[in-house]
Amino acid sequence: MAQQAYMTETAEGGSGPERRRDRFRRLLGRPVSGWRGDRRIWRRGLVLTTLAVLVALVMLLHAQIPNAIGNLGSLIETFLPWLGLFVPVLLLCGFLRRSATALIAVLLPAAVWLNLFGGLLSDKSATGGDLTVATHNVNADNPDPSGTARDVAASGADVVALEELTASAVPVYEKALASTYKYHAVEGTVGLWSKDPLTGVKAVDIKLGWTRAMRATVAAPDGQVAVYVAHLPSVRVKMEAGFTARQRDKSADALGEAIADEKLPRKILLGDLNGTMNDRALNAVTSQMRSTQGAAGSGFGFSWPASFPMARIDQIMVQGVEPVSSWTLPETGSDHLPVAARVNLATSS
Question: What is the model's pLDDT at position 17?
Answer without folding.
Answer: 62
